[in-house]
Amino acid sequence: MLGGRVLLVNVNLNNIKSLILFLSLLLGMAFPAAALFVSPAKPAMPEIQALFPTASSISEKQGEPAIWTVHQGEEVLGYAFETNDIAKIPAYSGEPVNMLVAIDAKGQYLGAKVLEHHEPIILAGIPETKLWKFTDQYQGLNVKDRIKVGGNASQGTIAIDGLSGATVTVMVMNVAITKAATKVAQSLGLIEIKKGIIQPLSTIKPDVFAKADWQTLTGDGSIRKLYLKRAVVDDAFMGTEAEHVDEASASQKQDMFAEIYYALLDVPTIGKNLLSEADNAWLVDPLVKGEHLLVLMGNGYSFKGSGYVRGGIFDRIQLHQGDEAISFRDLEHNRLTDLAIEAAPHFAEMSVFRIQAHYEFDPGAPWQLELLVRRQTGPIDSLFTSFKGEYQMLPKYVDTPAAIIPEPERSLIEQVWFEKRYEVIALSIMITVLLLILFFQDVLVRHPTFIHNLRHGFLIATVVLVGWTWGGQLSVVNVFTFLQSLMGNFSWDLFMLDPIIFILWAAVAVTILLWGRAVYCGWLCPFGALQELVNQFARFVKIPQFELPFAVHERLWAIKYLILLVLFGVSLDSLAMAEKLAEIEPFKTTFLLKFDREWPFVLWASFLILLNLVNRKTFCRYLCPLGAALSVSNSARLFNWLKRREECGTPCKTCATECEIQAIEPNGVINMRECHYCLDCQITYFNDEKCPPLKKLAYKKNKYKEHQIDAVNVAS
C-alpha cells in the first residue's frame, strides 16, 4: 500500500465501463472527430516518383548514408533520402519527424515531404497543411545554403517562415533536413567539408580623430547614404496585393521616397565632427564595453514611423550583421535636434540608437541598414518590403584582431539552450526563490500579509512568465513519453530539447522528494496559478463561493485517477491517441496556443477558468490527470514539513474549515495527495489569535500572571 490515506470506492465492473464510456463521449463531444485519428506513415516511393516525374529508374535505398539514386536513362536526375536514416532527431513529442528529401545532381533541393510525425501540436491544434507549407519552402534552395527558421535573411543566411505555435517542431525539422542533406552531399562529393574561421570583434580606436566637414565624411565613406526613388519602391511591390497602393504617378516616379544617412557615432572622427563636444560626450561617455551608437539622419519616408508608441519597437529599421538582426526600442533611442558640422543638409528627423553589448556587434565587419516599407492592403493587413544599405568601416578607425579557428558547431541541444539562456536563468532564479520560501516557511508564515503578497506575486510570475511567455506548462503527455522512453532506448537528449520543460521536471523531482507533489501544483503550474488568481479576485470582490460537502468532495477526487488510468492504458497502445485524449487538459489551449484554435477547445478552457469564480481550482482537484500522476509518487516524500497538533481535528477544525481546496480531512489530517502547499494552515498554526490551542495556552498564561503574588522584601 502506498503511503497516505487510500480512498476505497465500491463500484462494480459495469460502473467502471459506464464511466469510461462517459469520458470517451465527453471527449468526443468536446473535440472535432477528425482530431481523434492519426494518419498512417506514408510510403516513400510514391513521393519520390512525384518529385521526379521524368525518372526512368529508381535504385534501391542503399549506401552509407542510405539514399535512392534516380536516373533518366543514363543521366542521374538526383537523389532521395529519409531524414530518419541519417539525422534522427527527436522533436517535441519525443519522436522524430521523418521526412523524404530530394536533391538534384547539383545539390539543389527539389522538395521535402513529411512521411510520419507524432507531434501533438500538429495532431490537435494546428492543421497539417501548415506543416506541408513549411517544407515546401526548401524547394529551390541549395544544400550549401545556411537556412534558419524565422527572423530576417542576412548575409550568408536564408530565413524561412516558421510555424506559429510549433517553433520547436519546425526548428528540429530544419536541423534534420539540412544535416541529412549536408551528409548526403558530402558523401556524394557535391560539397566539400570546410572549416570556418572566427573573426574576433574589432574595437574602435578612441584616439584617432581628424577634423572634417560633411563633404569629407560622406565622400570617404565614413557616412553612407541609402537613397530610394519612388519608382524603385513601386517596382518592389509589383505583382503583390499592394502594387497600386500609394503608387506614384508617372511624373512622380523619379521623386525622392527616402534619403537616410547612417554611420557609427562612437567613431571619434564621425561623432566629434557631427555634434558639439557636449552632445557627443553626453551620448558616447555612458557606453559600456561592446556597446555602439548608430546615427540616422533622414528625409522623406520616416524611419521611425507614425505608429511608433512608447515602450514599443521601431519596426521600420533593423541593423543586420552576419546572422544577427538588431531591432531597437525606445530605451535605446535618443533624438538629435542639431548638427554642429559644416555644410550639412537639413534633415526632417535625426536619431541615435544604442546597439547593446549582447548583440556582439563588430564595428569592423560589414553591416547593413535595412529600411522596411509597409503598404496597407486592408484595415489590418499590410505587406512589407525592405531595402538595404551597405556599410564597411574604414580600416583607419578600428583595430581588427587576427582571425582564429572556431570551435565545433553547437549541437541542436546546445543551440536551444543557448537561445533560451535568459529564460533558463530567470526560471532558475524563480525556483531558487521558491526553495528559500519552502526552507524558511516556519519563519515566513509568522508574517501573514508578507507571505500572502509574496505568494500572489510568485503566482503572477508563474502565469505570465512560465506559462504565457515561456510555454512552460507540464502535461501528463510528458509522463507517458518518459515512461515509454524508459521502456525503449532512453536518451536525455529527448528531454533536454525544451530547456524550460526540462528544468521544471527537475524541480518537480526535487520537490517531490522533499515536500511531495503539492509544491508544483501549488506554485509552479501555470494553469493552477491562473485558477487560484481568478478565485482570489472573485473572493476580493465578494463573489459567493460554492463548496461541495466533504463526503462528495473526497469521492470526486477519484475522477482524475480514473482519467489517468484511461490515458495510460491508451498510451500503451498509441501514444499519439493518448496525446489527443489528453486534450482534457486545457494547458495547450491556454498557454501554448493562447486560445487561438477551434471553438470547442477555447470553450472548454474558458469554462474551467471561469469556474474558479465560484469554486477554487476545480480542474486541479477533480479532473487533472497530471496532478493524479504526480500524486502517485507522493509516498517518495522524505519529510513532513507541515506541522500539526494533537488538537487538530479533535476538537479543533479551524484549518479544515479554512482550507480552500478541502485537502484537510475532518480528523485534521492533511491529505498530501490533494494539498497544494498554499501554507494557509501553517499561518493559522503559528497565529495565537486564530489557532484555538494557542489561544487557550495564552489564556492560561495570562490567568497565571493575574494570580501571581509579588515577592515581599523584609528589611533586616
Q: Could you give the order of strands across the largest sheet?
A: 1-2-3-4-5
Secondary-structure-derived class: alpha+beta
Residue share in helices? Answer: 40-55%
Termini separation comes to 74 Å
Beta-strand residue percentage: 5-15%
- Unreliable stretches: 1-38
Average the pLDDT over all residues and give the rounded result.
83
| Radius of gyration, taken over Cα atoms and rounded to an integer in Å | 33 Å
| Counted beta strands | 18
Shape: globular
Largest sheet: 5 strands, antiparallel
Could you say how many structural domains there are in total?
3
Helical segment count: 28
Task: Give a structural overview.
Residues 91-184 form the FMN-binding domain. This is FMN-binding. It comes from Shewanella denitrificans (strain OS217 / ATCC BAA-1090 / DSM 15013). By secondary structure, this protein is α+β, with helices and mostly antiparallel strands. It folds into three domains: 44-188, no CATH class; 203-399, no CATH class; 412-643, no CATH class. The chain is 41% helix and 15% strand. It is built from 28 helices and 18 strands. The strands form five sheets. Strands 1-2-3-4-5 form a five-stranded antiparallel sheet, sandwiched between helices. A five-stranded antiparallel sheet has the order 9-10-11-15-14. Helix 12 runs parallel beside helix 17 (499-514) and helix 17 (499-514) packs across helix 18.
